[in-house]
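User: Sequence for HIT domain-containing protein below. Tokens please.
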Amino acid sequence: MTDTPESPYQPEELVRQDGVGVGDPFLRLWTPHRMAYIEGENKPTSMDAGSGCPFCRLPGLPDTDALIVHRAEAAYAVLNLYPYNPGHLMLVPYRHVADYTELTADEVSDIAALTQQAMLAVRAVSDAHGFNIGMNQGEIAGAGIAGHLHQHVVPRWSGDGNFMPVIGHTKVLPQLLADTRALLAKSWPTT
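Assistant: Structure tokens for HIT domain-containing protein:
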């Protein structure tokens, strides 16, 4: 095995590790927590409501355990367990419904209001430069949990599309989800 060049920024044991293949100048960043998402852990096996649906189960837990940031009458805001960027929120109706056209007027209203509030809270906490907002309708469109509609609010910053996600297929999150939840909950607008 060819030795990886040493760097003053890397501990020796990370530079030379048996079993990592042919050495190269790149440090491997291991993200084993992502395997839970890739393997479908906690993903419902049916489109039905109930204990198999995490979005049905979360409202029954304490906010800190469920990572719920805010609760409205017909929907709630929760941190994504597998975030694209720090502060990645999902807005979820309490009712188990799969399609946007099936939402009630109150659910549409709450999701719209939660979207605005989420943007304000994230800007207050982390000065996001922009947002990606949207939902994937159906498994074929990329919905990870197709049976329970949810809208994503993903904060974006200038330069956040650096080499890590593009080349390394890795996201670097500088803060624990519980800490992010606490900051957002504290900064959530009261209107």
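The first strand starts at residue 68 and ends at 71.
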